[in-house]
Structure formats: C-alpha cells, structure tokens
Amino acid sequence: MKTIAFSGGKDSTAMLLRLIEIGEKIDKIMFADTTLEFPEMYEWIKKIKLLINRKITVVKSVKSFDEWFYGIPKNGKAGKRGLIRGFPLKAYPCYWAREAKVRPMEKEQGKGNIIYLGYVINEKSRNRQKIIKNYQEGIKKEGHIYPLVDWGWTEQDCVNYLEQKGLKHPLIDRFKRTGCWLCPKQSKLSLKNLYLYYPKLWKKLKQYARDSPQGFKPNFNFKDFENKYGKNRFD
After folding, report:
1. Distance CA 177, CA 128 (A)
2. pTM across the whole model
3. CATH architecture of 2-229
C-alpha cells in the first residue's frame, strides 16, 4: 500500500498534487488532525479534497490535547511532584506530535507499506536535515519515501508549483510553519500574527500558559509581548 502523508502545508500539498499529476499509484491520502490547526487549514483541506476528487482519511489521537495537557504524567519530574503535564517540551517529537500524528499514522498505515512524506531539500530543522542527509546517503527508514527530496525541490519550488496551478496557501503570508497554533517552538513572527489576527486563540494560549507548570516557554512574557505590538484591536 502507498500512502501520502498530507499535513495540509504547502510542501505536502505540492507533493500530493505532483504525484497525482505524474500518475503515481496512490492507495491512501492521510491527514493527521491535531485538532489544533488554524481554521484556514481545515478549509484548505476541504478545497484540496474537492480539487483532487479523492478521499482523505483523517486520523486523530485517542485522547484529546486537553487530556494530555491537564493529565498528570506517571514518569518525569512533573508527575513526581503531582503536577499536570502542561505544554510539550521543545524537543522533537513533542508528546502531542507523537500522540496526534506519529502514532495514529503508523497505526493507520500498518507495517510493510510505503508512505510518502513532504520534506523539502532545504528543511530548516536539524532533525529533518539529518533525516534527509541519511536518506540521500542510502540510510533510509523502511517504507519512508521523500519525493520532494528526490526531485530536488525547495520550499520556494513548492510555492511556485502551487502558484502555477492558481493555488496560494491561505496561511503562507502569516506563518512559515503551519502546525499547531499553540506550539512553543513557533517564531516570534508567528506569535505576533497569532496575537494580531486570532484573538480567541491568543486568549486561549494565555490560559494554557497560566495553567502550565512550566509556563509557555522560557523567558516569554505575554504582557511585554502585547505592549510591544500594540493593543489587540479585537479586545
């Protein structure tokens, strides 16, 4: 079985459309819903589904994010102190990436099958850079294929390809990465746009930060951040 891991981002979208365009055999298209995607992402998924006229299988974590966030871990410092888990650590994969993406996709995909992943040749994260380097050197995880790497495509190549098809990702002007809106690993620019354009999500992020034993992320002050970028006009 050949499955496409479709995150909904520009890279995986370009990979999906190009594989269909060249006639690659595809048995399944899989979207791992973290339940923490931006509203525009869900609309984009619907748009692409209509465009390709194919089923997109949606997988999710058995437990909700709140169950993990407010749960008391059995192991680790927080659990020993009787504290809730709070925000994921900045390490990859964080507990939510593992529970909402990795494990549901592996379960759905099964063993002995092929999965196409949308990594580009100029990935920024060290973890992905290492995976790509190993892939190019023939050190491959069984069943994992990276078509964009094989084609030598960069992030800009994916953007150009989508634009040639009259498609522009709705989040591309505001966010370089389109993952969970509350991710502690996101850039200051992403947080700025979250604050300016998504007041309800920003308010929810502040509540999570108050509840989390370790706060949102080291040395981040919400009041200072809001003062820097001005009062949110939606408040």
Report:
1. 14
2. 0.90
3. 3-Layer(aba) Sandwich (3.40)
pLDDT tens track for 180-200: 999 998 889 999 999 999 999
Confidence of residue 74 (pLDDT cuts 50, 70, 90): confident
Degrees, nearest 5: CA angle 17-128-64: 80
Query: If you search the block for the tokens 């995976």, which residue do you land on?
Result: 131
Q: What residues contact 54, with CB distance under 8 A and at least 6 apart?
A: 20, 26, 29
First to last CA, the chain: 50
Dist. CA 210–CA 129, nearest whole Å: 34
Rounded to whole angstroms, the Cα distance separating 195 from 225 reads: 9
Structure tokens at 61: 């974590």
Ranges of each domain in the chain: 2-229
